Amino acid sequence: MVDDSRAEEIADKVYNLYNGYTSGKEQQMAYNTLMEVPPPLLYRVQHHYNSHYEKFGDFVWRSEDELGPRKANLILHRVEKISNYCRSLLRSTNIRSRTDTMPYVDCRSEEGRPPSNTWHGSLHESRTSCMEKLISVQRNTYSNTKLR
């Protein structure tokens, strides 16, 4: 699940941290921010940063310049772990989040005594009741995706 608007906000925040006078505090804040986001979101941060601010230097170059090669490599290495299929989805021009409701069945044993791990316990008759419930699942929809 990737929150694309959050990725854009983080890209803006990182740009502002990189673009001003970069003290150790701003560098550490940018580093911490980028290390805290999951790799798919980091991929989108890089995408938004480059689409908005590339004229000031692309994300990789600016990260190496502002944070140093070691810290930049730690950040960028996390993106390399994303599968090719996932990368192709993350290249979409527009990623939207949506919530779907899906049914599932929840079954519970109505056995009066605590369950036992012995064979004898498994032979004991028990009644099971099942109930259909709904669960909300967040997912992304992708547009203009070129799967490679």
Automatic annotation (TrEMBL):
Domain of life per record: Eukaryota
Residue span(s) of domain Astrotactin-2 C-terminal beta-hairpin: 95-141
GO biological process: neuron cell-cell adhesion; neuron migration
Record domain Annexin-like: where: 1-91
Any one of the GO CC terms: endosome
InterPro entries xref list: Annexin-like, ASTN_2_hairpin, Astrotactin
Full protein name: Astrotactin 2
